[in-house]
Amino acid sequence: QLQLVETGGGSVQTGGSLRLSCTASGDTPIYNSMAWFRRAPGQEREGVAYVDSAGNVIYADSVKGRFAISREDAKSTVYLQMNNLKPEDTAMYYCAADFKGGRWTDEMRYTSWGQGTQVTVSS
Question: 9 near 119, Cβ under 8 Å?
Answer without folding.
Answer: yes
